[in-house]
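Table 4 source record.
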Amino acid sequence: MDTHDQLMLLFREYFKYNQDWESKQTHVAGIKCRTLLAEIRIIARKRRAEIQEIRQKKAPVKSPKYRQSILKDNEDDKA
């Protein structure tokens, strides 16, 4: 299972326990919410690192304004 799927499962489980906590404020639901939030934080850090690694391997993306300025400079050079 990849990290995105793990995050989604944890979010769903957190949502369920958070609903219990908000409605009943049981001791167990509060503990489970905090535990799940800690797990979500750990998996989110892993996912963030994966995304950063992929982004570093890709070529840098230039903004549309940058591309337009290059096109304009090329047109000026031709004239």
